Automatic annotation (TrEMBL):
Gene Ontology terms, MF aspect: acyl-CoA dehydrogenase activity; flavin adenine dinucleotide binding
Name listed for the protein in its UniProt record: Acyl-CoA dehydrogenase
Domain Acyl-CoA dehydrogenase/oxidase N-terminal per the UniProt entry, residue ranges: 8-120
PROSITE patterns on file: ACYL_COA_DH_1
Residue ranges constituting the Acyl-CoA dehydrogenase/oxidase C-terminal domain according to the UniProt record: 231-379
Coiled-coil regions listed: none
Keyword hit for Oxidoreductase: yes
Family under the similarity heading: Belongs to the acyl-CoA dehydrogenase family.
Length: 381
């Protein structure tokens, strides 16, 4: 039997999230940060002190050993209260920590997991290149063997949070002779390594998650920078995609619920023709359709979280959750804008920001077309 009621421990954690978000990232603070392009990295140590960044990790590293259902609930709640917090939370847990747990060496876990859990370190993923977007196995950035490790040369693009990160998990070509996937390895590169530089990419939205072009000019790292086995970087990274996609999806559900809540409040308050606009059936049906999409997406995310928590295969469901939730968010914000009309188009409107930022998620973190192809492949096509 499936139980949808969070247990007492989960409810207590969600209350902690609510209090933290109300204190540190209320809507006006989010607006201020968005306008100032100020990422909330300064909140990481407090998120760490509250135990949030250690949720799924072993106690030996400072973690709480919660299962993935709890992580998904927190991702959704942070998406509801302020997606910019969910973004860095997902980067630390779904990407950084889970990469170390899945394919990091014991020494790397020892060295970096406590710092990630405490909110002192941040890993970013350096995968995309100018000619390798959806075709990620086409990466060309070269890592050549040296006497003591690796020397990296090349360029990455659209690397989010690169400047705020302590390390870049860099997906590099270590064997130019091997077939596409087999010649790729993952290397942990400190952002203060000599020869590494970056320039910001001006962009349309998600202002609190700055993205960078990153240049590697004879960047030397030691042998111990290799994550997983040489030539296995692509396969290793693929094993962690479910955490990243699941995290993005859950935070999209929270943000989509926020869009519904804002639109509902507006529909009750805004009076035209002598009645609240929510009295018009056209507005009611729009809201009903928005809420249905959000509830469907929530179920997809909870199903994925249950599969992960119980150790079941979830590759297909991670793609499904990512597609369903990103499209639910776009649907909810698109129709939310219609309900708010001019009030949503004002520069300070939260709905406007949600709508603008939502545009990224149907192609970021693996385009939805690619997810659909993966789902079709899992169906034997
Ligand atoms: C704000 C932002 C933040 C990002 N952050 C990061 C990051 O932190 N780290 C990182 O490594 N990357 C990051 N990226 C890159 C992101 O992952 C890529 O944008 C994404 O994978 C798509 O690649 P592309 O933009 O090159 O599009 P393309 O691959 O050029 O795709 C263009 C269009 O063609 C379609 N298409 C391509 N191939 C196929 C196919 N086989 N079948 C059907 N349709 C196809 C796509 O679905 C898409 O609609 C970020 C991007 C943005 C915009």
């Amino acid at each position: 039997m499936i139980d949808f009621q969070p247990d007492d421990e989960q409810l207590a954690i969600l209350e902690t999230v609510d209090r933290f978000m109300a204190r540190r990232l209320p809507p006006e603070e989010q607006r201020r940060r968005d306008e100032g392009h100020a990422p909330p990295y300064d909140l990481l140590p407090e998120m760490g002190a509250l135990g949030l960044l250690g949720l799924p990790f072993p106690a030996a590293f400072g973690g709480l050993e919660a299962d993935w259902r709890t992580v998904a609930l927190v991702q959704e709640r942070m998406g509801l209260r302020g997606r910019m917090a969910a973004s860095i939370f997902n980067r630390v847990i779904g990407f950084g920590g889970m990469s170390l747990m899945t394919y990091g060496s014991p020494a790397q876990r020892e060295a970096f997991l406590p710092g990630l859990i405490a909110g002192e370190l941040l890993f970013a993923l350096a995968l995309t290149e100018a000619d390798a977007g959806s075709d990620a196995a086409g990466v060309k950035l070269k890592a050549a063997r040296t006497a003591s490790g690796w020397r990296l040369n090349g360029r990455k693009t659209w690397i989010s949070d690169a400047q705020g990160a302590s390390h870049l998990v860099t997906i590099a070509r270590t064997d130019p002779e091997a077939s596409r996937h087999a010649g790729i390895s993952a290397l942990l590169v400190p952002t203060d390594a000599p020869g590494l530089s970056m320039t910001p990419i001006p962009k349309l939205g998600n202002n609190c998650m700055p993205s960078f072009e990153v240049f590697y000019d004879n960047v030397d790292v030691g042998e111990d920078a290799l994550m997983g086995a040489e030539g296995q970087g692509f396969a290793a990274m693929s094993q962690t995609l479910k955490y990243g996609r699941g995290g993005l999806a859950a935070s999209c559900v929270g943000a989509a619920q926020r869009a519904v809540d804002l639109a509902l409040a507006h529909a009750k308050e805004r009076v035209q023709f002598g009645r609240p606009i929510g009295a018009f059936q056209a507005v009611q049906h729009r809201l009903a359709d928005m809420q249905m999409r959000v509830d469907q997406a929530r179920l997809a995310c909870w199903h994925l979280a249950w599969l992960i928590a119980t150790g079941r295969d979830s590759t297909r469901e991670a793609s499904q959750a990512k597609v369903i939730a990103s499209e639910a968010l776009q649907y909810a914000t698109h129709h939310g804008m219609q309900i708010l009309a001019s009030a949503g188009y004002a520069a300070e409107s939260e709905m406007g920001r949600l709508w603008r930022d939502a545009r990224l998620f149907s192609f970021g973190e693996g385009a939805n077309e690619i997810q659909r192809s993966l789902i079709a492949r899992s169906m034997g096509l």
